[in-house]
Amino acid sequence: MTEPGMTALALDLKGRLLEFHAVPPRDDPGGAAPPPDWPALFRAAGLDINRFRSDSHPRRMPPVYADERAAWDGPDLDQPADLLRVEAAAYRGRPVYFFLGPADEPDRYGSCLGGGPRPRLVHLPDLRG
Q1: What three-state secondary structure class fits 20?
Q2: Is residue 72 within 8 Å of residue 55, measured between CB atoms?
Q3: Is 32 a member of any domain?
């Protein structure tokens, strides 16, 4: 993905968001940007952000430029004994990256380029609003 506005997402079989990538615009319009709506991404993933603990040190590097990054750890509702890692990034308040899964798991989108399991990816013109 190289062109501004290109997006990709991975969903589980219940339609819950697992991963999201978006290429931000080339030009910075300047001015104040709104804060990212992280709870909206959690809702799309079928998660309650209030059940997750914020981590001040995101570990994943988003595949595109982002001016804000965030990370959380919390319970996996499908596997209560497991913890999930959520990492997200935004550019000027708009999401450009979201990852949900075990902390040591590679990005799903990146695995499509290098072999390995191939999740179903849906490319859409613009989900960022």
Answers
A1: strand
A2: yes
A3: no
